[in-house]
Amino acid sequence: MSKTILVVGSVLLFLVPALSANAQEQKDEETVTVTGEVLDMVCYLDHGASGPKHAKCARTCINSGLPVGIKDKSGKVYLVVGEHKPLNRELAGRAASVVTLKGKLVSRDGINLLEDAEIIK
After folding, report:
1. What is residue 16's predicted lDDT score, i.e. its pLDDT?
2. pLDDT of residue 4
3. Alpha-carbon distance 68 to 12, whole Å?
4. 100 phi, psi to nearest 5 deg
5. What are the boundaries of the signal sequence (predicted)?
């Protein structure tokens, strides 16, 4: 991985827990269902990587603990976390595939988080 990917990944690893903690303080959370492509957030943010051609790399990155996300058909991207735990193990095998997740939507400063997410299908 390039130095840029490692830097972005490190920043996101610290950002996700902070967002999750702040989300608990926010009172206007809503439960939503999101259907979209499972993304490796580092490669997606660094160089727009997504889709079937990137699936193998995305699985590797997600399995290594880098942040996982989902991009819906409108192009909205969400960081994804389970209930006080990452969902990497559950989502790595579905990298670049379309899944449906249900969770609490929290948005702050332009960043979207699907918290307490669970896989629907």
Report:
1. 52
2. 59
3. 10
4. -120, 125
5. 1-23
Exposed e or buried b per residue across 65-80, where buried means at least 16 C-beta atoms within 10 angstroms of its C-beta? ebbbbbbbeeeebbbb
For the chain, count helices (H), then strands (E).
Answer: 4, 5
Q: Which amino acid is at 108?
A: R
| pTM (predicted TM-score) | 0.77
pLDDT of residue 121: 73
CB 16 within 8 A of CB 79: yes
Secondary structure (3-state) at 96: coil
Give the amino acid at 21: A
pLDDT along the chain (121 residues), means of 10: 55 51 54 98 97 98 98 98 96 98 96 97 73
Residue 37 main-chain phi, psi, to 5 deg: -80, 135
Q: What CA–CA distance (Å, rounded) separates 120 from 98?
A: 11
